[in-house]
Write a structure and sequence with these properties.
With 179 residues, the chain is α+β, with helices and mostly antiparallel strands. The chain has helices spanning 14-24, 33-41, 85-96, 116-128, 156-162, and strands spanning 2-6, 45-52, 55-64, 68-76, 101-107, 132-140, 143-150, 174-177. The protein has one domain: Aminopeptidase, CATH 3.40.630.30.
Length: 179
């Protein structure tokens, strides 16, 4: 059974999660596990190890408010990729946060981008998982992202409020319409 296990600084998976974050996210998107755990201590994020019958398979971090759950990071260990863990994790998150608007983002498809096939696969992955376009995107660190959500109508103002705390201090974010 797939479970999300809340992490602490003493969790046995800390070393593996730290390594996964470095491998799975480019420098513009990377945030260390230590920084994520600081944000968890501040009440902004929940950092989880993803486990299947006790076996560690990946991690996710979710920013939470009373009405929103933003999947800040989601990564599956390479040996477990393409085995349904991403989709099962999204379902577990959907069950856990069924009373909230669940938000994801991914690099905006761009035919000139060398990784455009990967961007299109991610978009399709989220569509299959029940997420849909919000009509909004944002850019930071020189990368543009599309925002998808599920459960209820998405409101850009609430999302902007969510992204204003310490988590993004010093980051310049530009919001734009998609579509």
């Amino acid at each position: 059974m797939l479970r999300l296990e809340k992490m602490t600084r003493t969790s046995s998976e800390c070393g593996r999660v730290g390594k996964l974050l470095k491998e799975a996210f480019p420098p513009a998107e990377y945030m260390s596990l230590e920084d994520q755990l600081d944000l968890q201590d501040d009440g902004y994020l929940s950092v989880y190890a993803i486990k299947d019958d006790g076996t560690y398979v990946g991690m996710t971090s979710i920013a939470e408010t009373n009405d929103l759950a933003y999947i800040f990071f989601l990564a599956v260990e390479e040996e477990f990729r393409s085995k349904g863990y991403g989709g099962r994790t999204l379902q577990t998150i959907s069950d856990l946060y069924c009373d909230r608007i669940i938000i994801v983002d991914f690099e905006l498809p761009d035919e000139s981008a060398p990784n455009n096939p990967q961007r299109l696969r991610r978009r399709s992955f989220y569509l299959r998982a029940g997420f849909g376009p919000t009509g909004w995107g944002f850019a930071f660190g020189g990368v543009s992202y599309e925002i998808f959500s599920k459960n209820r109508p998405f409101g850009i103002d609430r999302f902007k409020e969510m992204l204003t705390p310490k988590a993004l201090s010093g980051m310049s974010i530009e919001y734009f319409r998609v579509g």
